[in-house]
Amino acid sequence: MAGRRVVVTGLGALTPIGNTKEEYWQGLCSGRSGAAPITRFDASKFKTQFACELKGLDPLQFLDRKEARKLDSFVQYALICATEAVEDAGLAQAGSVDPDRAGVIWASGIGGLDTLIQEISEFALGDGTPRFNPFFIPKVIIDIAAGHISIKFGFRGPNFATVSACASSTHSMIDAFNCIRDGRADVIVTGGSEAAVNVAGIGGFNAMHALSTRNDSPTTASRPFDKERDGFVLGEGAGALVLEELEHAKARGAHIYAELAGGAFSADAHHITAPHPEGLGASGVMRLALQDASMNPEEVDYINVHGTSTPLGDIAEVVAIKKVFGDHAYNLNISSTKSMTGHLLGAAGAIETIACVLAVQHGIVPPTINHFTDDPEIDSNLNLTFHTAQHRTIRAALCNTFGFGGHNASVIVKKFD
User: Helix 73-89 vs helix 144-153: angle between axes, to the nearest 10 degrees?
Assistant: First the structure.
């Protein structure tokens, strides 16, 4: 689609393998797992007793204590991460951008689950008198993260939330991309945050049989494409990108990481949790993303796959990739960084797109760790970047995210020139 060009000028990452974009990238390149036994609550009676939690994070190093009490964890993560991205882009100073042309489009798949659990539990344990925190609703609602970010930086442009389960933050980035491309904004802070490592998050996904139960070896539990994969590992955190119109970025001398070339969305229209077995929605969204970017499949060198480590999902995505890329599929590097970070649900697309941006910039493909046994249903001739990072020139990278409900979203980032 013709329109104004959009580039990435700021990044922020808060992940189970690093609390800044630099630490995150180092964790990816070194193949480090973020999985460990759960510390947030006693998980001894749960089928899954481990997760990819954030480590060493003290929100009070970033937020005033009084302010932090008014914010659910997913909003705290959003503010911390978005601040890193805004500062990285050089937008934190007054007058660096027209506030009416700067916006925030932020995502979460679940929102304020910690607060919801706390408030309902306290009511259930009481005498029936409705004593709820006056910040209960503002802490829970998903759009509130975008609101807080815009208030902090005074950005008065487009401001809303996107929700599409695990595709949520990819949808937020595409909406931000389109707003800038269409001329409705010059700069947008976009991404997503999630804080679902709690009794309801673990218990709910356990009830669906979606999580790995490899309690004896958490660090090897997320094993995309492996024959013995048994579900995903729940993660938490946030990813933020500053998207900016190219000429606006050049005029203020901004550092440009990469260009966001295209994005698309589709639906499986098949099942609420299972992917279409022939990968119809997944192949469709990748084709549409290529079309939106005016690119041929042969111009893509790397795909960061949804790759959650579920029995059905990994197979369907590989089927879809082969349909779209044909013989070029064997020239691609393909990897699932969820093998290291776990699955950040609504924030997954943001942190995985950041991985693509940095891969393009540095010419390094992060690995898929924890591969032990080939799955005969997955083509072993594909380069799934097992075990260690690989160096190569990456002209463009595609990032896939697929959510419960059959929601599919893909974005393409390419080297800026």
Answer: 40
Q: In 3-state terms, what secondary structure has residue 9?
A: strand
Report, as residue numbers or ranges, the catalytic residues.
166, 306, 343
Q: Give me the half-sphere count of Cα atoms (radius 13 Å) on the Cβ side of residue 99.
A: 12
Q: Which residues pair with 373 in a beta bridge?
A: none
Read off the pLDDT of residues 70-128 as tens digits, 9 standing for 90 and up. 999 999 999 999 999 999 999 988 778 999 999 999 999 999 999 999 999 999 999 99
Q: Which residues pair with 359 in a beta bridge?
A: none
Q: What residue type is assigned to position 140 of the chain?
A: V
Give the separation between CA 337 and CA 151, rounded to whole angstroms.
32
The structure tokens listed for 246 are: 């190219």
Q: Cα–Cα distance between 297 and 356 in angstroms, integer? A: 16
Residue count (the chain): 417
Is 143 exposed, middle or buried (CB count within 10 Å of its CB: 0-12, 13-18, 19+)?
Answer: middle
Query: What DSSP assignment string belongs to 205-272?
Result: HHHTT-B---TT-GGG---TTBTT---B-BB-EEEEEEEEEHHHHHHTT----EEEEEEEEEE--S-S
